[in-house]
Amino acid sequence: xxxxxxxxxxxxxxxxxxxxxxxxxxxxxxxxxxxxxxxxxxxxxxxxxxxxxxxxxxxxxxxxxxxxxxxxxxxxxxxxxxxxxxxxxxxxxxxxxxxxxxxxxxxxxxxxxxxxxxxxxxxxxxxxxxxxxxxxxxxxxxxxxxxxxxxxxxxxxxxxxxxxxxxxxxxxxxxxxxxxxxxxxxxxxxxxxxxxxxxxxxxxxxxxxxxxxxxxxxxxxxxxxxxxxxxxxxxxxxxxxxxxxxxxxxxxxxxxxxxxxxxxx
Length: 265
Hints:
Elements: E1 5-23, E2 34-40, H1 48-54, E3 58-65, E4 71-75, E5 81-90, E6 97-104, E7 115-116, E8 125-129, E9 153-154, E10 164-182, E11 193-199, H2 206-209, E12 217-224, E13 230-234, E14 241-249, E15 253-254, E16 256-263
Antiparallel strand pairs: 1-4, 1-5, 1-6, 2-3, 2-5, 7-16, 8-10, 9-15, 10-13, 10-14, 10-16, 11-12, 11-14
């Protein structure tokens, strides 16, 4: 039948690709006969749907024959800087390793990078949550990728109505532009959906956060989540936010929460 398999990779840093290695070691009777590579440049924290649908993909390696049980090394002539690669294999088969070599780009664009205001390193602080039966809420704002389920925030199963929540003080008052909810490692126990409420209360004390004096405003309506995957949601907000309440329905595990935006200070 027609068609081929493919995968999309995010580069560690944006940069110019000089050489690629499509390694088929140990694949003798089941390696792809051919491969091609496309590349695109996307804003940081772009979601998968954005990358697939809006990425301006450029072919940097045309459909080329591969050898089995070999390192297939190809030179790349493009001088463009890219953030993502899409490896196509024809029609299917096995690849042991895929490596891309090149020069990272350090440009003034970094001045406009979105900041993760949930991150502990940036001053984010988790204040309270409804439950942390299996693992601690503070794991949500670690800078590293989750190691396993115990390295995320997981609540116990609910046997009645309601939902779980966590309240987070952001590192600085900010205009939130994107939210990233990562359910890495959570496959049968991820939340069905989530929502986020926010408030602008820079001078409020911790003990007052849990009282009814806070006027929470919904900034993300209840949205479906996917198992073992990052969900990136674009927001269109005009008002600064200092605190958020992250709600998960009905319960479950989330590896990381990123609140991405720009400071108003």
